[in-house]
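Illustration 12: Urease accessory protein UreG.
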Amino acid sequence: MKMITVAGPPSSGKTSVIIKLLETMKVNPERVGIVKFDCLTSFDYLRYEEVGVKVITGYSGKTCPDHFFVSNIEDAVRWGLNSGYDFLITESAGLCNRCSPYINGIMSVCVIDNLSGVYTPRKIGPMLKLADIIAVTKGDIVSQAEREVFTFNIRQVNNTAKIINMNGITGQGSFMLAKHLSAARDVVTLKDMKLKFTTPAAVCSYCTGETRIGESHQFGTMKKINFDLD
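Figure caption equivalent — predicted structure in token form:
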């Protein structure tokens, strides 16, 4: 079973890119499993169901979305193998920009859209920096100059990834994406494999439900700004 990890900011077009990719690859939808990781809510399962692809959606809720991902990814692989899928694709949205859901040796795709602002590539962090492939969407509704500046800023963060301009409506670019993803690794287990980046080192009182403000209510790993107060 080939495994592909797709991540990107909310509404960047991840689901559209994945659906166009599957159409281009002409794979049997019944041989593909999608695991969608999100924080609070998602309606993307409706789009996957329309094309006949089985999807499992998990919500991190009050827990750190990055910890939630890594706590469940091995079971996701087991689910894909037990279901007899040829492809397992994980889609992650709503993860903080502090880390990334990528695993060493597993093909990783970051989806980012031109409308998010030319400096957005410098703000996303490891999710963009550590991707093998960067799919850039919505380039058809910005100017050539904006596209070039956007690409330049991507290269300032990640100068090794393949950059593919994608159109989630027409499917333009999906052939090139499919070509690169044909080299995705076959997996039977994630045992002894490692994340590309460490998850946030934060377990504090607010992580566990505290709402009161003040140092007397703050425990665990906290980080403070130096305001140079007396």
